[in-house]
Amino acid sequence: MLAIVIPYYKLTFFEQTLESLANQTDKRFKVYIGNDASPENLVDLLEKYEGKFDFAYHRFEENLGGTSLVQQWERCIELSRNEEWIMILGDDDVLGETVVASWYENYEYFNLKSNLVRFASKLIFEKSNTISSIYTHPDWEIATDSFYRKLREVSRSSLSEYTFSRESYEKYGFYDYPLAWNSDDRAWLEFSDDKPIYTINSSVVFVRMSSLNITGNRDNILHKNLSEIQFYKFLISNKFKFYDNKERLEIIKKYGKEIKRTRDLNFLEWIFIVYYCLIFFNVGYLKKGFSMLFNK
Fold first, then answer.
1. Diameter of the chain by CA atoms?
2. Are strands 130-131 and 197-209 parallel, antiparallel or unpaired?
3. Do strands 197-209 and 116-125 pair parallel, antiparallel, or not at all (unpaired)?
4. CB of 281 within 8 A of CB of 240?
5. Which GO terms describe its molecular function (predicted)?
6. Please, where are the H alpha helices in 152-220?
7. Spatial CA neighbour of 21 closest among 45, 68, 53, 46
8. Helix (H, G, I), strand (E, B), or coil: what is residue 141?
């Protein structure tokens, strides 16, 4: 019923990932490992875990993650069978030992009521060799509210701590932003399909922050910036109605700020902002917003 899909490339922390799967108290899952033409030999390590949990392994001969991480996710998901629910687990992330057990324990609560189930999370900081305090969430939360909490930096979210229904994935898919930055944020907004996200706070997914992954690598700043601009344009175009005026101003401010990191707003971007402001704000609020956000 639950497929855990791992798009593999880096060996450095992968044994810890596999060990966390072997330590699951409930083994009702199947792991699908898609090797993205990695130069690092994985076979000997996989032999060590034969029989400890159910997994299938496939090596792709062409590296795809270097040009499109989303397409690598997609071809790894295609390795899976008919499981109704999917988790994409990073090759350096770690599951707490009760993650799968608590997922099944809560199944009756979220089945048919939600397309997205997430876990509490902690961050592993490679540089300082420390672990963050726990990040928890409301038991039930609208996806747009969840993202706004992330925008305000009072919460966090990433790919590994979510499971999603195959039906919602097949309906929407992952949008292919550069470096897949924000591709998961957009997926949760779309996959939810007007149903709330259900959270299991009793189990934890450990997400690694290191110089080897996209989140921790500062060399990718320009690509991340481009992804942010594209994502916030989508958010304004498609999800603005779910926010109040204060939240809309924050989102527009974020959109403009991401553009101004590298250049001035162009004419079409100004027209885009003015158009959505005229639709959603009254004249007084619009004047206040422009004064606050765009004065030079």
1. 67
2. unpaired
3. parallel
4. no
5. glycosyltransferase activity
6. 166-172, 183-191
7. 53
8. strand
- The conformation of residue 220, written as its DSSP 8-state character, comes to G
137: exposed, middle or buried (Cβ count in 10 Å: 0-12, 13-18, 19+): buried
What's the rounded mean pLDDT across residues 216-226?
74
Encode pLDDT of 110-131 as tens digits.
999 999 999 999 999 988 889 9
Angle (CA) 194-172-55 rounded to 5° is: 110
Give the strand pairing for 2-8 and 85-88: parallel
| 237 vs 269: CA distance, rounded Å | 12
Q: Which domains does the chain have, with CATH numbers?
A: 2-209 (3.90.550.10), 218-294 (no CATH)
Instruction: Retrieve residue 86's tokens.
Output: 């999917």
CB atoms within 10 A of CB 57: 15
Indicate whether 214 pLDDT > 80: no
Does 218 have pLDDT greater than 80?
A: no
| pLDDT at res. 278 | 86
In the chain, which ranges are continuous DSSP H helix?
14-22, 43-48, 69-77, 99-105, 107-110, 143-151, 166-172, 183-191, 221-239, 245-260, 267-280, 283-294
Both tokens assigned to 166: 């195959």
Question: How far, in whole angstroms, is CA 185 from its chain's centroid?
Answer: 5
Q: How many CA atoms lie within 13 A of 249 on its CB side?
A: 14
- In this structure, what is the dihedral angle of CA atoms 42, 103, 147, 204, given to the nearest 10 degrees? -60
Residue in this structure with the two tokens 């044994």, named with its chain if needed:
15
In the structure encoding, which two tokens stand for residue 248, read together? 């809309």
